[in-house]
Amino acid sequence: MTLYITKDGHVDAERIKVKIFSGIERGTMSAINGIVVHQTNSPTANATFNSYSSTTNGGAPNGAHFLIDKDGTIYQTASLYRATNHVGLMQSRCIITRQCHPTELKHAQSLERIKIVSNKAKAVHLNEVQKAWPGRYPSNADSIGIEIVGLAIGPRNREVYEPVNDAQNSSLKWLINQLAETLEVSMHEVYRHPDIGRKNPTEASTAKW
């Protein structure tokens, strides 16, 4: 059975609590090509909700469409018809999969050779967002983000995300399967955040669906 989605992009389902934060919503999302799984790096759902309600240096907060709490409760935090900033700087699908034209691969490899890491990441990202999917990974503009409450623990730059628990994984599996069927998203286009972005490799590493 597919999910019922209202005209506002809100899911009407017994297992989902709708708690929309309009501040994390961006422009209209006209296509949905993928799903990206994250961890919040926060200890509680409320800590993440507080961040969704705040602004930093006058800017709008980042966020995702769903959040799964420690007890497995699923919250919808943004409309399915609105983009959110949850992917960040993208990696090159061409380099990772090698499924692209040799000329494109050569160009992507030249960007990866930029010595300053921050400049390299930005250059690769800007090159990727100019492409149409599936020539790139799903981006902010065409993917659903799912956050799982969980902290990254350890010394700076060596943090390890705490394991996703059984209740969270059960809810994640249900949610991804429901979204994939309803929105006609291929299960091959469901990713952990580090698979497609420049993120801590342990983020969502224990997520299962």
From TrEMBL:
Report the EC number(s), separated by commas if there are several.
3.5.1.28
* Superkingdom as given in the UniProt entry: Bacteria
Cite the entry's keywords alphabetically: Cell wall biogenesis/degradation, Hydrolase
Spell out the reaction equation it catalyses: Hydrolyzes the link between N-acetylmuramoyl residues and L-amino acid residues in certain cell-wall glycopeptides
Mention one GO molecular function: N-acetylmuramoyl-L-alanine amidase activity
- What is the protein named? N-acetylmuramoyl-L-alanine amidase
Cross-referenced Pfam families? Amidase_2
> What organism does this protein naturally occur in?
Variovorax ureilyticus
Q: Among its keywords, does the record have Hydrolase? A: yes
> N-acetylmuramoyl-L-alanine amidase domain location, by residue?
31-199
Q: Which PANTHER family match?
A: N-ACETYLMURAMOYL-L-ALANINE AMIDASE AMID (PTHR30417:SF1)
